[in-house]
Amino acid sequence: MTKASTSADEPWLTAEEQLIWRSYVHATTLLEDHMDRQLQRDVGMPHIYYGLLVKLAESSRRRLRMTELAMQAKITRSRLSHAIARLEKNGWVRREDCPSDKRGQFAVLTDQGLEVLQRAAPGHVTVVRKAVFDRLTPEQQKSLGEIMQIIAEGLQPNEAGADLPWLR
Question: Residue 160 and residue 134: Cα distance in Å, rounded?
Fold first, then answer.
């Protein structure tokens, strides 16, 4: 929707802003679908599961507290719990109780999960490179990184009580 009558403190997007916004939504939707299809075809998992396996593989002893994993993945605890249940069913992750917190749990990447991740990574990197980096100049890549960092910082407040997915 373009300009219409709104309150002075909430103006509509300009035609140019609307074009940029829709291009962003269009590109990110297509990119996420493209990565999902590649990962489903190659190793039978959606992109979000791949991201969880990567975070576990990069962590100390291939394990993270569930709350920390939800925060790193930027997803709700409920969505994480569902994803971990599916990954457990595949034998790629296991849960372990936290000895210092009776309510806490760790997600642990299994050897089988690491093998699947290692099989998936080359194809995923190829998709990302072709879809994003090969299409941009080095200057555009740098600008994209800076822009995304600014947006992420603005959406992730540090104050107590912030409404963030991993706190829900």
Answer: 40
Residues 6+ apart with CB under 8 A from 63: 56, 96, 106, 107, 108, 109
- 3-class state of residue 62 by DSSP: helix
27-81 pLDDT, tens digit per residue, is 999 999 999 999 999 999 999 999 999 999 999 999 999 999 998 998 888 999 9
Q: How far apart are CA 129 and CA 122, in angstroms?
A: 11
Q: Report whether 63 contacts 70 (CB < 8 A).
A: no
pTM of the model: 0.85
Average pLDDT over residues 83-92: 97
Structural contact between residues 54 and 117, judged by C-beta atoms closer than 8 angstroms:
yes
Find the radius of gyration of the CA atoms of the chain: 19
